[in-house]
Fold this sequence. Notes:
4-stranded parallel beta sheet; single chain; 14 helices; disordered N terminus
Amino acid sequence: MLQKMTFFGSLLFALWGCARAPGFAEEIRVTDFRGKEIHLDRPAQRIVCLIESALSGLYMLGAENRVVGVSTNIYQTVFPYYASMDRRIQKRELPTPGNWDFVNLESVIALRPDLVVIWAKQSESIAVLEERGIPVFGIFLNRKEDVYRAVRSLGRLTGTGRRADEIIHYTQEEIARFAGKAEKIPFSQRPRVYYMWAQGNLETSCGGSTVDDLISLAGGRNVCASLPQEHAVVSLEKILTWNPEVIVMWYNERKDPQDVLKDPQWRSLRAVRDRRVHEFPEVFLCDLWTLKFQHAVKMVARWCHSALFADVDLEKEKGRMLEFLYGHKIRGSSKR
Length: 336
């Protein structure tokens, strides 16, 4: 009798295990940029995303309907683009419980998220959310490889892994299409490039940064590549010594290339004398922390080597990229 009970007990346990197997198979494990492993029983259904670059990735993955809260800057500079993709944003219906430097924890919790995507350095906010049992995916991006990693992770967290692989492969192919031409240019013939952030003329990015990747892939030489700094404030004297041949400006609402060209402090630079000062279009179009990084590479390649890339129509390249990444044409606005 005991043997029969043991047999039937084992059989029931095995059958229970088979019935549970699909649930176990669906468990999602992803390590974020803090080194913390995130566990989800199923793909996230209610996401609060407080980083615009990650939000862009979620829209590329087709997971935008899972988003229940966004960062405050979505209703600012990039608003026209997201408004064209999401009626909730167009009507300003999606809540904004914070951004990269501030989080309203009560507002986040009230949205009942099963996943919060946040800047990895917001440790105090992350600790409170995790104490409440809310999974948090922390992001911190330094290089283009980090962008690929973030998109893959978001793909797994939302059950859209196949789409993640598709858009990453597309981006890598597009970058290779331009970088393949540029890499054949001898180092001595690569123009010296100075990158200028919008915060100030002397703020730049040096070796080991996304900007350094960008300039190198486009066939240029970052003038401060020898300095291992993601973000640096340099002196005007240093820039004059580097004497860049091309100046690339991050999108700046307050300043245009003409302002740099007319600045008497910069007039001796080769880039100014040759009028090779260029500005990226609005942030959304060539965000260096999204897969749209590819468009920035194309633009800088064209600015550095106009003859080599003379047949490139940047407007067509932009439209094709946006349609592929987001799955449809996107309307927006432009400063120029």
